[in-house]
Amino acid sequence: MKKENIKIKTKLNINKTKVGKTSLIMSLVSEEFPDEVPLRAEEITIPADVTPERVPTHIVDYSEAEQSDEQLYQEISKANVICIVYSVNNKKSIEKVSLLLNVLILLSGHRVPLILVGNKSDLVEHSSMETILPIMNQYSEIETCVECSAKNLKNISELFYYAQKAVLHPTGPLYSPEEKE
Ligand code: GTP
Ligand code: MG
């Protein structure tokens, strides 16, 4: 694939469970956890020379409070990869992952790799993987899943690396017979 700007989009919760999308972006950029964050992070392009895959990476946050559905659809249709964030300490946000997946796959109109991101790992002792893996196995669009914490900076750079990798070296099928016609 051509090494052009990669667009990473964060999309989350339908009913504002504050899973930490904005905090994840700000933690990546400033390398520290921000005590206060705006509803939506400003769009930012990480220069190629500081990314592991050496490709400029454009990160787009999503805020249900600040953006219309129409804006969301437009961003989804432009994205090269979408990170779906849930909060590992919030069962409801985990349950919503399947619903979001269906919506995103329907809306994207093209095959876009998805990353499942379980944030706030600092708040729990147990992993959410047991719940997430069966979901992951149902959707070939999901490239990988990762648990992380914006607060203690755990797996933050890894998360963005996985997103880059999903675009540059996708493991999913390039051709799906069902998509024909
Ligand atoms: P909306 O934009 O309203 O949809 O929320 P969001 O998904 O952008 O979440 P945001 O980054 O605003 O974080 C919501 C709350 O969770 C804030 O109080 C953050 O400080 C907190 N938070 C975010 N990430 C973490 C984390 O990794 N651990 C803990 N303990 N708290 C976090
Ligand atoms: Mg936000």
UniProtKB/TrEMBL annotation:
Coiled coil: none
Parent-record interval covered: 1 to 181 of 593
Organism (species): Cyprinus carpio carpio
Domain Miro: 6-169
Similarity-based family: Belongs to the mitochondrial Rho GTPase family.
Cellular location(s): Mitochondrion outer membrane
Protein name, entry field: Mitochondrial Rho GTPase
Function noted in UniProt: Atypical mitochondrial nucleoside-triphosphatase (NTPase) involved in mitochondrial trafficking. Probably involved in control of anterograde transport of mitochondria and their subcellular distribution. Can hydrolyze GTP, ATP and UTP.
Domain of life: Eukaryota
